[in-house]
Design goal:
Blueprint: E1 5-9, E2 15-20, H1 25-37, E3 52-56, E4 62-64, H2 78-105, H3 116-140, H4 148-162, H5 169-182, H6 187-220, H7 224-249, H8 251-262, H9 270-289, H10 291-317, H11 325-338, H12 350-361, H13 366-382, H14 384-397, H15 399-414, H16 438-446, H17 454-457
Antiparallel strand pairs: 1-2, 2-3, 3-4
Length: 458
């Protein structure tokens, strides 16, 4: 004989389990409701292996449904991430930074012979490289976005964050993305601009390195470090080329892959990420078809790298040593290609550990190379940190930020939003609560209506 069933509900009050038992339906429903309201555990401890998940569609109808299971997200504990980052940073500081500082201490006597004018010129070239990078960002973004000055402040803020967090390139890109959104740049356009900015800069850097390597090999011979840097560059170029081909030739497959991967990433919507990738693919096709725009972007990317390298050359020259252009580009390219390894913030220690011995190999003394590189890194790495925090504050609470906040407060005061269930509050515009014209209301107040004659009525 078939026994009646009892029904239990989950916390969403939509999915119920039907478990065979002898409890009447009304008693089971009241028991389930009492357990749910009291916060007791669900029926998972007494459920049978063959229980059926059901969905209420009306009062007397149940439809079976297979419960959805959220994808498992891969998460690395924060303690593990910070421990690994601190360990790697300690290794780099111990074996790369401290030896260079010891060498700098023995070279302080050269500071008395430094040419201050060249130091100022090097600072100006470094600032010019930041301007070129802002112009690159302005080129790859759609028209009507932030101005060049605003983009300079956005890039400086992102650079400061990149220089204080190990592997901070992703965090810096996220900050740039959010700041561009504050200037009403659409998410897909901002993502495309950041992608083209990063990929274009990396491609130009590797091309400069390869040209310098070819010239240096013919003039001075082969060095094993050249092969390592060239191999890293080949891997990066292959990865960039694969992504571009996938977006252009297999856009639908790329969108599906991104959607599936996005479902496993915390705080990311797979559908939203897939829509952004599809928009990026469309922008990429239009960007590659516009040859003039592509050439301008490559020119500004090259200007950014060459001005930064020229700043390094001037800082070394300020201490009395002339580095050949091919040797400078080889050392500069090797350091920046290897700095992409996300171990230290902004390649701290890696850049110095590669630049100084490479410049020594191209004829500079250890003392001159050490002071020249450290002086350049003072402007290239350390100075953008306080400057970036200042530009970030100017973007958040500067003149434009205050203007937006005052306008928002004014609009909210003029058009208040009434809470549900409360009477309408009149706007602060001088209108009367009854909707009458203030002038007519004042006239009616000054001339009251005549009272009826009660004696005549009698």
């Amino acid at each position: 004989m078939r026994r009646p069933a009892r029904y239990t509900t989950t916390t969403t009050a939509t999915v119920v389990r039907m478990v065979a038992s002898g409890i009447p339906r009304a008693a089971a429903a009241s028991t389930s409701r009492a357990r749910r309201l009291s916060g007791a555990a669900g029926w998972s401890d007494t459920a049978k292996a063959w229980q059926v998940h059901l969905l209420f569609t009306c009062q007397h109808e149940l439809v079976s449904r297979v419960p959805d299971r959220a994808p498992t997200r891969l998460r690395i504990p924060k303690q593990v991430r910070w421990t690994l980052s601190a360990f790697l940073l300690a290794l780099v500081v111990l074996y790369l930074v401290i030896p260079q500082l010891e060498g700098a201490g023995k070279s302080l006597y050269l500071l008395g012979r430094v040419n201050v004018a060249y130091l100022l010129l090097g600072f100006g070239l470094e600032f010019a490289s930041l301007l070129a990078y802002a112009q690159l960002t302005y080129t790859v973004l759609p028209k009507g976005g932030p101005s060049r000055g605003q983009l300079l402040r956005i890039n400086t803020s992102s650079l400061a964050l990149t220089h204080v967090i190990p592997g901070g390139t992703a965090a810096g890109a996220g900050l740039t993305y959010r700041l561009l959104g504050d200037f009403e740049v659409e998410g897909a356009d901002a993502a495309f601009g950041l992608a083209m900015q990063g990929v274009g800069s990396a491609v130009v850097l590797n091309l400069l390195l390869w040209v310098a390597l070819v010239v240096s090999i013919f003039r001075r011979g082969y060095n094993p470090l050249y092969g390592i840097a060239a191999g890293v560059g080949v891997l990066l170029m292959a990865a960039f080329g694969g992504v571009i081909i996938l977006l252009l030739r297999g856009r639908h497959h790329a969108v599906e892959i991104v959607r599936r991967v996005g479902n496993y990433v915390p705080f990311v919507s797979g559908d939203a990420l897939a829509a952004a990738v599809e928009r990026i693919a469309e922008r990429l096709r239009a960007f590659l078809d516009d040859r003039e725009l592509l050439v301008r972007a490559l020119v500004w990317a090259a200007a950014n790298w060459l001005l930064d390298a020229a700043s390094l050359w001037v800082f070394v020259f300020a201490f009395g040593k002339v580095i050949p252009p091919d040797g400078l580009l080889v050392a500069y390219g090797l350091a920046n290609v290897l700095a992409v390894i996300p171990i230290t913030p902004g390649g701290l220690g890696i850049v110095e550990g590669v630049l100084i011995p490479t410049l020594v190999g191209f004829g500079a003394s250890k003392q001159v190379a050490t002071l020249g590189v450290l002086s350049w890194r003072l402007v290239n790495f350390w100075l953008p940190i306080p400057a970036g925090f200042g530009t970030y504050l100017s973007l958040r609470i500067g003149e434009g930020g205050w203007r937006r906040r005052v306008e928002d407060a004014r609009q909210e005061a003029l058009h208040p939003v009434a809470a549900p269930g409360t009477p309408d509050v009149p706007a602060l515009s001088g209108a009367s609560p009854s909707g009458a014209d203030p002038e007519n209301r004042s006239t009616s107040d000054s001339e009251p209506e005549p009272r009826p004659d009660r004696s005549a009525a009698r």
